[in-house]
Amino acid sequence: MQSIYSQFGISEQVLRYAEPVLTSLKERFQEIDETAEYNQLRIIKAMQDAHIGEANLKGTTGYGYDDIGRDGLERVYASYFHTEDALVRPQITCGTHALALALMSNLRPGQVLLSAAGAPYDTLQEVIGIRPSRGSLAEYGIGYKQVDLLPDSTVDFDGIRKALEDPAIHLVTIQRSKGYQDRRTLSVAQIGEAISAIKSQRPDVICMVDNCYGEFVERQEPSDVGADMIVGSLIKNPGGGLAPIGGYIAGTHECVENAAVRLTSPGLGKEVGATLDVLPSFYQGFFMGPTVTASALKGAILAANLYEPLGFYVLPDSKESRHDIIQAITFGTPEGVIAFCQGIQAASPVDSYVTAEPSDMPGYDSQVIMAAGAFVSGSSIELSADGPIKPPYNVYFQGGLTWPHAKLGILKTLQNLTERGLCKLP
């Protein structure tokens, strides 16, 4: 093994440092595999119950009328997530698009959106109009309020109760993952407690959860604890690294139909939308999702356990439970962020010879460095890392279609930082 790792420039010193850490994680990794097995079996049952056959893997063109593969896939998603309905389409271009679609279709002028988990992810801020943007909710007369999480990253129930006194609030959004914030990811249990508190005061309010990066990490999803809508991207966990594009919205019939009408056209809704040739990758990606997510989780945990003893702040820390696949590491300097991301890029099967550099990105208020030598462009369930070039200089690591690749990527980042004098191994 040392011989093959040396071909990637991984030194014996780095391998010696990692060896006892890997040994200590075996029991924890077994628990992750058991969760993956549980969720994998749930998906198989959902596909069997939906009577998915070879005919469902054939796509359509044109209007996409009577697309049995598309309709079957949406039954599978609704069954797995225990929702009344689902919208799973290649016409949804990314996670931000899916979230914008869910919000814009279920809010009307004069109503107010409440974020119950602090500021939303950077790109969603332009959707809402927190940062002025063409076509935002604010331009359509939809208001916005925000309740920050408490300093310990828990839900501010008192703040939410006070905010809900505004009768114009129609939809509450809860972002499960941390995004570029220095906070902990919310567990499904925490999300359930928040939804229960909201519904006890305002049962009329729609509760939506941004589920990006969280699917399959636990044995329950936010839809199991009262969410009216959960939203995500197919180039993250549920696409299993195979879906080339797409997003999903799963929830009540009313919420999903509203989204379908906004995606296509009034009077058309879910009845149109050709799937072309993407259905095999959508079905198989969802089927593979739990085991791929398990590989990504192992990589995140390894990163925390390697970097924390070296004095770097890691979130989540090396011991705490996991509720998404993202691992944040604080380097304190732009050089640390850049070295880490360049290590990930160098360990990639695609574009390994490319050097990742910070640049301006649409939807962000600072330069961002993004590393991903992916089979699907921008797929963050594949081994990837990114971070804004601004204090405190955090890097956000996620993905890994296989555990060996996730492991290689982390070792390569450590090699990079060591060689550049940005960390010292014991």
Strand order of the largest sheet: 1-7-6-5-4-2-3
H-E string? HHHHEHEHEHEHEEEHHEEHEEEH
Give the overall shape.
Answer: globular
State the end-to-end CA separation: 22 Å
Give the integer mean of the pLDDT values: 96
Q: Could you please describe the fold and organization of this structure?
A:
This protein is of the alpha/beta class. The protein has twelve helices and twelve strands. The strands form two sheets. Strands 1-7-6-5-4-2-3 form a seven-stranded mixed sheet, sandwiched between helices. β4 (169-175), α8 and β5 (206-210) form a beta-alpha-beta unit. α11 packs across α12 (403-419). The longest helix is centred in the C-terminal third of the chain and has 29 residues, at 279-307. The chain starts with a helix and ends in a 7-residue tail after the last helix.
